[in-house]
Amino acid sequence: MRHGLANRKLGRTSSHRNALFRNQLASIIDKERIITTLPKAKELRPQIERLITLGKNDSVHNRRQVERVVPDDHLIAKLFETLGPRFTERPGGYTRIIKLGSRRGDAAEMAILEFIGYEPKIEEAPAEEKAGGKKAAAPKKEESEEAEAAAEEKPKKKKEKKTAAPKKAAGAKKPAKSAAPKKKARTPGTKRGQ
Description:
Low-confidence stretches: none
Mean pLDDT: 81
Radius of gyration: 32 Å
CATH architecture of the domain at 14-115: Alpha-Beta Complex
Largest sheet: 3 strands, antiparallel
Order of helices and strands: HEHHHEEHH
Structural class: mainly alpha
Number of strands: 3
Strand content: 5-15%
Oligomer: single chain
Shape: elongated
Number of helices: 6
């Protein structure tokens, strides 16, 4: 009987489940947003919120507590220097779960687990290309010239291979086998004997 067992097993052994959550915790600290299945997101939410609460108070003990779960020094530094101070005024509820719907392959319910106040990084490269259209056109010409030069080199290599092959054949002459008479190709719709 499952009396008093609160957490989901997710169809995994305990060691596999722990490894899964450690990897996902590392990913959410690094990227600040992950896409996963809804049950995994619901299980992961209390764990990441516990780590953020530890990250609000920077002490050796708290760092060691976090290091038990996330053994990457870069991620621990980010947790205590960036994420913890961001949520000092907030008394919990550091993450949100956004439902995405079912996955195409197996119809599993998908969700986004992200920090409150997460803003995706907007790339400014397309805006620069529009503003400096003349500048962007010049590198394209250079790229096309490089591609043409590479295309010219490739046929040269092939020609070299073709010239090398007859030399091998000329060096080692083998007796020619007598060719067997070729069979007539039958036309479609005819019987074999005719």
